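Study this protein:
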Amino acid sequence: MQEKDYIFEITLKVRDYECDIQGIVNNSVYQNYLEHTRHEFLLAAGISFADLHFNGIDAVVNRVEIDYKQPLRSGDSFVSRMRLEKEEPIKLIFIQDIIRLSDNKLCVSGRITVVCLKNGNICMKIPSELEIALSPYYSR
């Protein structure tokens, strides 16, 4: 994927406590990196999870697919990049990559599917509060 396809990125650094006994980032930690990227993107797009929740709307992860390509190690700096797709009528798909900066190697590739709940019930379409804010970012 070319950089121009990404709509958001954040640079992070691996911390010692995120590594397992093998000296590499534990597989579960990558989900934290991917989630942090999505949350920072939403904030940059003017969307507050707290505000949505107080209005009865919760965007929840429905499915996570992760391909682990290369391990990250303590001290590695990396960039977490993403793009956004909409799968009609109710799913948001976050396509996310984590790239180690020292050698530009793809470490993780993820596809995270999100659906929305309104007052605890699945929405049959993306709520207008999200649709209006996110529509400029959908990959075409």
The chain has a mean pLDDT of 94. The CA atoms of residues 56 and 119 lie 5 Å apart.
